[in-house]
Amino acid sequence: MKKLTLSICLILCLGATKFLAEDRLEVGIEYDKKLGQFVDLNLSFTDSDGSIKKLKDIIKKPTVLSLVYYHCPGICSPLLTNLGKVIDQAQVEPGKDYQVLTISFDPKEDAPLAAKWKNNYLKSLKRPVKSEDWSFMVGDSLNIAKITDQVGFRYKSDGKDDYIHSGALIVLGTDGKIDRYLLGTDYLPFDFKMAVYETAKGIAAPPISRMLAYCYSYDPNGRTYVFNFTKVAGTIIFVGAGVLLLTLILKGRSKNSNNGGLNV
Amino acid sequence: MSDSTVASSNYVNYFDYKGKYSGIGAWLLTVDHKRIGLLYLFSIITFFLVGMTLGFFMRLEMLTTGETIMKPQTYNALFTLHGIVMVFLVIIPGIPAGFGNFFLPILIGAEDVAFPKWNLTSWYLYTIGGLFVIVSLFLSGGPIDTGWTFYAPYSLRTGTQVILPLLGAFILGFSSVLTGLNFIVTVHRLRAPGMSFFKMPLFVWSLYSTAWIQIIGTPIIGITILLVIVERLFGVGVFDPAMGGDPILFQHLFWIYSHPAVYIMILPAMGVVSEIIPTFSRRTIFGYTAVAMSSLAIAFVGTLVWGHHMFTSGMSDESRWIYSFLTFIVALPSGVKVFNWVATMYKASIKPETPFLFVMAFIFLFSIGGLTGLTVGALATDIHLHDTYFVVGHFHYVMFGGTMFIFFAGLHYWFPKMFGRMYNAKVANTALVFMVVGFNMLYFTFFILGYLGMPRRYYDYLPEFHNLHVVATVGSWVMITGILIMFGNLFIAMKKGKKAVANPWGGMTLEWSIPSPPPMTNFVKMPTVKYGPYDYEHYEEVMKNEH
Fold first, then answer.
1. Would the pLDDT of A210 be above 90?
2. Chain B closest-CA separation from residue A262 CA (Å)
3. Residue A110 pLDDT > 50, yes or no?
4. Pairing mode of beta strands A262-263, A213-215
5. Three-state SS for A94?
6. Closest residue of B to A22, CA-based?
């Protein structure tokens, strides 16, 4: 009976974890599901000058899309700063080979805030980038929900004013096809050039670097358990090795291993 | 001992010995360290050929830009498996489990290792671990694609088959610890009379140092692997940042083992070099104590440098320069070894036979590997070269040009002893030429590619890298030709080679004082040791005694 109960518990546990594991990703980027699919170009967002535009009016070239929110305390600023860096460094010409589009996924944010950020980032670039080549936009909750779903960008509210989310650049073709994800917040000029190159040719390829960066509430107390664990394991290993060495030294050579015959 | 075959009438060699079991059972159920050593050697060579084939297809894929023969996912699986097979199944066990098992007891004048049954158990664990890795290829989800380092959080999230190969690596760890423990106890307990620690051959010293790293380091990787498995199955957030875990912690735990593992790989190889050089120089090794102690020093300092794998993963500047500095210190004991080897050869009467030529190839390749190690060990240059082909070139020079070339040298050095037959030296030397030329075409090109910015593990590349990739791929063909010639030659020699004498090279260590192939109990008469392992001034006196 005990065994039966135990095995039922085990099966239930395994079932539960399986269910959790197969559920839709809560936070992160479902690049594997969305690659090669299309973003609806009829979605409309508000540009930093206050005008409402459909995506198809903006996307004229391969487009590097980033989803952030402007008052984000975490990874959004580094993401945009690194995007600016890679625009400066990569051997592809902004405005000629590609354009950049940044959309806030917080529906509470408005056009003047977007304008402020646009001004900031365009000024920090070493390369001359025209205003229309890097758009900063905001949108209503319906359009935001649609575009984030279409590119597989999963995030959730932290219950207060901020969001738990991850960072990536998404490269779209002129037809709205999702051709490449550059995951994380740090981009190599090489990857960037390759992504723009291949998007222009219409090649959809999986992301190269799969390290995602996360913006999450960090709990330093959570670490103590892990560290205690490593300390305990480490101590056991070293004490064990020490005892072994001591025993062997004290015991010395086995007297009856062999009695030896000849001189060598 | 005179250069004639010992009459086989007064002993039974381990090939002909009839025990409780016969046929295949005589091998699979044997507790004789020599047979277990051969079981290991054959399994290791088989896995080496598997890993080589994987590498061959990877290089073929890189021959042209875009798709050549496979899809990106297949390529990811190939480089992962190539790494797992070569590191965990070939290079780590290669010299200690193969040659160590066969020769450690003979070299210290023992009849067997301290725990013969554990010894067989560890071979079974090795085989089971290896099978787990192979079986995982055919299960749902497809072969693992994380790279051999299993970095979190990707290893926690990929849909491919991760748990089985990880369990495989876990079991291999047990095999490694058992072998290490066995060797340590053997060295302490079973030395022949007169065989003090400082009369032990240097190969034994290196096995002894390695064994300590194995038993201290391997449990750490075992625990880390278990944590990854638990996290995948039950969603406990240890390493996954989305669940509040720390991916950098994984890297620390992984490299705390895996960097010392680099010394598990190279130290026994250095030990074999310290055997071969005195034998073919007919001189005692220069600075015996320094060479022996440098093994311990490398083992010790090697455990403190793991952070240099993580210079770009997020680490304070202070830890970075400390790790960089400690990394440079490893060069000191390594330098002690190389200079002592060279000093041994200085003004010696060198016989440039096949094993010695392999060692020369090793010194050349390993020096390039070691010096480029300083390039990636230095902080400033590593930032540029991290995760490029330069690093791939560096560790192939060290692991392949270092450990594997010495594995091959050991095969040619001890082949007559193990099988009692001789191989064709001309063919072996030709194979070596092919291997060295192909090796440099393949991996030196990697340094240039990496310096120019070709990232490692990429399926595709920009057109400007094309020519260099062609050179590297052609190099891989030349090298593989050499490897196949070498194994073919040894295989033929095993069946049809001329009978070998007991001491074909004029070696002084104990294995050369017994017949080829060795008797079942190693020594016909048990030895008492009077002189150091390479005291060639007493050569005549020592070789009068047959064991």
1. no
2. 5
3. yes
4. unpaired
5. strand
6. B159
